[in-house]
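Protein in question reproduced for absentees:

***
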Amino acid sequence: MADKHDKERRDGVSPKTDDLASTLMGDALDLLAAGEDLGVLLAIGDDAGQVASYRFTDDGDEELLAGARDQVAATVRARGDREAGLGAPVRYSLAYEGAVADETGAYQDALLFEFGEKGYKAYSAYSYVKGKGTGDRFQWTDAAPAGEVEPLL
């Protein structure tokens, strides 16, 4: 069900949120190339440009994703993360592994993203990946849009 505030949200992605999501994507791709278990990566940014990064591992996929989303909500309630030097959150990005159907309907390994900003609609995207743990032979595609998601801010 759509929130009444959804109609008031702006379309698009601000340059600061795009930068946050792109940086997180690069970090996630580096971890995958190295063969590390990604879990769920989360980056939260404030108005001053400070960013707090979190990594959720050692649980099931759904629990990790729920934990990352809960961290966004907790950081909003706390008006930031003092230990990380973060003020009130205004943008976030999540990255995690999954699978996405390609043009033939076959599922391919992918890096999935969710990102949003206060006052904007939230979106998801994906990048197909191949060769996890192969270092320089690791391959990925440019990120492709996957649609709107429930905003966390």
Q: What stands out?
A: The chain is about 25% helix and 35% strand. Helices lie at 15-33, 61-77. The CA atoms of residues 35 and 65 lie 20 Å apart. The chain has a mean pLDDT of 93.
